[in-house]
Amino acid sequence: MKYKLLLLLVLIAAMPATAQHADSLLLRQQANHFLQKGKRQHTAGWVLLPAGVVGLIATASADVADEVYGEVVVPLFTGGRESYDSRSYTGYYLLSLGMIGTAIGFFASGDENKKKARRAGVSFKMETAPIQYKGLHGQQHFPAVGVRVPL
Question: How far apart are alpha carbons 142 and 25 in whole angstroms?
Fold first, then answer.
């Protein structure tokens, strides 16, 4: 119980020290980060979608060729020594469909990240202001709210 209370006190003391230090530069970096992430996800989607479609077409044509020509072609190449065994293309179909599904997911999350980059952002930070009191110079710290509104 003593360790749980100590951990709770440490967390309570550490939270205000780190939770309110987001400045406008950080907000701009987050917006740029989400834009870059969205572009990368779209690029990955455009790579995976054609690969999945080509894989699906190749698998379907191999499956059809195996069903139609398998019993004729295999003995020609093997000299009649091997018997014909039909192949299962289920794994290839699932792989191709998985690539297409992943590409669609990348397109959707890329759009979501671009929307996140354009949203308004609010941050809390500590600002300092110079003060002069009776000939003494110093700085006064005060909390400030930063708001980013896309135009």
Answer: 19
